[in-house]
Amino acid sequence: MSNPIARREWLKQSALAAFGLSFSFKSLGGEDYLPRYWGSEQGLLNLGSNENPYGLSPAAKQAIADMINSAHRYQYNIPSLQNFKKELATFYGVTPDHLLVTPGSGEALNLLARAYSQGDLVTANPTFGILPNTAKKIGVNVKEIALDGAKVHDLGAMMKAIDTKTSHVYICNPANPTGTVLKPAELRQFCQEASKQATVTIDEAYIDFLDAPYNESMVSLINDNKNIVIVRTFSKIHAMAGMRVGFVMAHPDTIKALAANHFNNANFCMSALSMTAAQASLKDLAHSKLSKEKNAAARDFTISELEKLGFRCTPSFTNFIFFNLRNYQGDFAKDMLAKNVLLRSSEQPDGKYCRVSVGTMEEMQSFIKLMKAVKA
């Protein structure tokens, strides 16, 4: 198979077969289920996984290089990593007793679905799929509440859906796949009320892309409330998606209960190299700031250009954009993959939508050039 075009097509068809030709938000559990780099040697434009295209902090790269000669040791046998949890806690204004470290936030969401599986789950639709999909797999009744007309969580409808059978509520804020955000005061009030009846998990994976006043975390609620859980990750602003570092913040009593059961092995699964990179990245605020600024510029450019082409974009506060495909005929994600672009598309009650990750400015310029030829 020496023909480059034939080889590229073979790569695409093989991957499509492996992943069942499905790129919808609802059928996939999350970004971990989407092909990432296959075909990259053929120039694949990967805008499907909400990754940070600017890479690791230079400080994180150096930390990995410095640690590499100790990588044959378990992380608990490396002195410099013994303060990892303490440094993480200090950065977020909590104590180590408020923290559980996990190999990526996806694993935390998976374990939380199991930990609170004794009753119904209330969540949004569409939303990030790992937690609700795990819940469904283990037999939990999942109540999926439609977003409001602005593609924002309908907190009033979600509150009405909570009853005596509800044990868990899941909110991804900022929201995936829509990129929308809740007003902090409204989310805070919801958490306080809903947590009287069930455990409320807030997934703050994309909060670092927010500006004030929307960048207010709900972490302050955990000091006095055992039924509120916050999930965070190093995958997004810290560009560590492939290194799998996530963590849970909750009341110490909640953390103790989770650690004794479903999370009892989570910390042991952490990589020494990932932990040392995360330590360094936390301190490199300049790199996070630069990633945020570059993302905002590329995002604003893309939204502006898409709207000039007649595509209606949902206001995005994140590193991805959710836009309506109008009357597009066919499978948009599949058709774009044939053009060497990986993204997500789905059928929603009000039409077809695409979720495209924000890459570099150059990548988004290439994407827009292709979009100018789309007939919708």
Walk me through this protein's architecture.
There is one protein chain. The chain is α/β, with parallel strands linked by helices and 376 residues long. It folds into two domains: 139 residues, Alpha-Beta Complex (Aspartate Aminotransferase, domain 1), CATH 3.90.1150.10; 211 residues, Type I PLP-dependent aspartate aminotransferase-like (Major domain) (Aspartate Aminotransferase, domain 2, 3-Layer(aba) Sandwich), CATH 3.40.640. 35% of the residues lie in helices and 15% in strands. It has twelve helices and twelve strands. The protein has a seven-stranded mixed beta sheet with strand order 2-8-7-6-5-3-4, with helices on both faces. Strands 9-12-11 form a three-stranded antiparallel beta sheet, with helices on one face. It has a two-stranded parallel sheet with strand order 1-10. Strand 5, helix 7 and strand 6 form a beta-alpha-beta unit. Helix 3 packs parallel to helix 9 and helix 10 runs parallel beside helix 12. The N terminus is likely disordered.
Proportion in helices: 25-40%
* Main structural class: alpha/beta
Assigned CATH architecture of the largest domain: 3-Layer(aba) Sandwich
The side-by-side strand order for the widest beta sheet comes to 2-8-7-6-5-3-4
User: How many discrete domains?
Assistant: 2
Q: What is the makeup of the main sheet?
A: 7 strands, mixed
Instruction: Write the H/E string, N to C.
Output: HEHHEHEHEHEHEEEHHHEHEEEH
Kindly estimate the percentage of residues that lie in beta strands according to DSSP.
15-25%
